[in-house]
Structure to design on (339 residues):
């Protein structure tokens, strides 16, 4: 009898534990944090962040150096200050970067006005990748190819204005005003990424609904840049000592990869908050039924299956989901979106 009772108790305990785990998982899947994680998997955030980091390094970062060479000395110094503080570059690596920004005459002679224009088009590979990341995070349909280049050029101008203002604020405010500088830096960063989300989404999402995306991205990038001051100097110095300029390049790509993840987290979190059917979503949308502006195309359908961690490493060349639509009663659909 004891053996029979044990045989019955074992499967019962396993079944009870399984049921409780399913209940807990069901509850967790309704939380905003889980939905943000699910949206990140849908966006293929690891693959997207690596692509963004690579394109920043090979196209956008050189553009910063080239464009800075054509700017006045004080603006070039502000951009240099912003870049080096964000990257946490110090020591011999800082001297290398300073030399790149200081040799303006050589850069201007080697580049020329035509080369500067071509550098903007070359950097569009990064802005196109950034555009796709926002489209995937918000499940928006792709736009026209020509419009992508226009948005890319506008964003490049905006990021240079942002870096010049941030560097200027750092130089103007004295050391004892660190708290005020933090507030100014966070406000500028929020405005930059708020504008970025609006621009990359083609103005089809209400500006108010995009504010959380800008704020979360700014906070994530600021915290990441602060952490970089602790580990980036040693990483750059060590790599520079061991591998030379190639080691510095590896350290920069690693930093860019982490920063790209921060951008994708902000985009995904902003989309989830804006689409939330609960009180948070209504607050973000200011009571509107949908985060989209009137006349905007409906959002693309969400995935039909549960996503796994492996989906974060997958890659697709287009901007559309790779899997069919969920049933119409799915809770993941955007409020007010057309079915």
């Amino acid at each position: 009898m004891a053996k029979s009772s044990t045989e019955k108790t074992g499967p019962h305990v396993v079944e009870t534990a399984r049921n409780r785990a399913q209940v807990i998982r069901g509850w967790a899947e309704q939380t905003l944090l889980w939905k943000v994680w699910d949206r990140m998997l849908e966006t293929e955030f690891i693959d997207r962040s690596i692509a963004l980091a690579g394109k920043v390094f090979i196209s956008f970062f050189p553009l910063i150096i080239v464009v800075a060479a054509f700017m006045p000395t004080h603006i070039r110094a502000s951009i240099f200050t912003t870049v080096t503080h964000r990257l946490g570059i110090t020591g011999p690596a800082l001297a290398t970067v300073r030399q790149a920004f200081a040799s303006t005459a050589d850069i201007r002679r080697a580049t020329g006005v035509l080369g500067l224009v071509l550098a903007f088009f070359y950097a569009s590979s990064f802005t196109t990748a950034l555009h796709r990341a926002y489209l995937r995070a918000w499940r928006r349909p792709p736009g026209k190819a020509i419009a992508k280049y226009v948005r890319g050029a506008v964003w490049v101008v905006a990021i240079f204005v942002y870096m010049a203002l941030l560097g200027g604020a750092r130089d103007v405010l004295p050391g004892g005003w660190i708290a005020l500088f933090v507030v100014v830096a966070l406000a500028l960063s929020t405005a930059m990424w708020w504008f970025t989300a609006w621009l990359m989404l083609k103005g089809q999402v209400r500006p108010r609904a995009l504010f959380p995306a800008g704020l979360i991205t700014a906070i994530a990038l600021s915290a990441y840049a602060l952490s970089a001051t602790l580990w980036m100097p040693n990483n750059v110095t060590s790599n520079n000592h061991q591998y030379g300029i190639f080691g510095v390049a590896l350290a920069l790509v690693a930093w860019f990869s982490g920063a790209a993840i921060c951008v994708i987290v902000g985009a995904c979190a902003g989309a989830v908050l804006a689409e939330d059917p609960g009180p948070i979503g209504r607050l973000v949308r200011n009571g509107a039924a949908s985060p989209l502006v009137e006349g905007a195309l409906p959002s693309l359908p969400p995935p039909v299956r549960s996503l796994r961690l492996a989906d974060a490493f997958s890659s697709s060349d287009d901007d559309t989901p790779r899997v069919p639509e969920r049933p119409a009663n799915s809770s993941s659909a955007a409020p007010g979106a057309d079915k």
